[in-house]
Amino acid sequence: LLLAGGTAQQVERATPVLMAMGNELINAGGPGMGIRVKLINNYMSIALNALSAEAAVLCEALGLSFDVALKVMSGTPAGKGHFTTSWPNKVLKGDLSPAFMIDLAHKDLGIALDVANQLHVPMPLGAASREVYNQARAA
């Protein structure tokens, strides 16, 4: 997947060269937009990788089969990502109502963090997520 930013004419002119390096090209918009969308993509990918590592460590600490956990997570938004599951049918259509109650999400994060703490498994991204839900509950 290649990203480009520029006018339609600029990207069209560069397409033959760019396609020699990949099989899909997305014009992200005007000049500078390709690097901006790359920044967001990398931010999300790196953060999700770190969160996945936290989950894998907790899975091991709980004595769970990682193969079973992976199969479960691969079939849910945890593994497929919200951009391809819940967002297209809800958020991107303007529906911002919670699909999963904020209080339940806060509770579930709390339980996972409590268990991780008892097992001495650091979960800084989980803790940061819980703080976001604390703020949502207070709003």
UniProtKB/TrEMBL annotation:
Q: Which UniProt keywords apply?
A: NAD, Oxidoreductase
Q: Which InterPro entries match?
A: 6-PGluconate_DH-like_C_sf, 6PGD_dom2, HIBADH-like_NADP-bd
Q: Which GO terms describe its molecular function?
A: NAD binding; oxidoreductase activity, acting on the CH-OH group of donors, NAD or NADP as acceptor
Q: Which Gene3D superfamilies match?
A: N-(1-d-carboxylethyl)-l-norvaline Dehydrogenase, domain 2
What Pfam families does this protein map onto? NAD_binding_11
Coiled coil location:
none
Domain 3-hydroxyisobutyrate dehydrogenase-like NAD-binding per the UniProt entry, residue ranges: 32-138
Q: Which residues, if any, are the signal sequence?
A: none
Q: Can you say what this protein is called?
A: NAD-binding protein
Q: Which organism is it from?
A: Enterobacter hormaechei
The taxonomic lineage of its organism, from the top, reads: Bacteria, Pseudomonadati, Pseudomonadota, Gammaproteobacteria, Enterobacterales
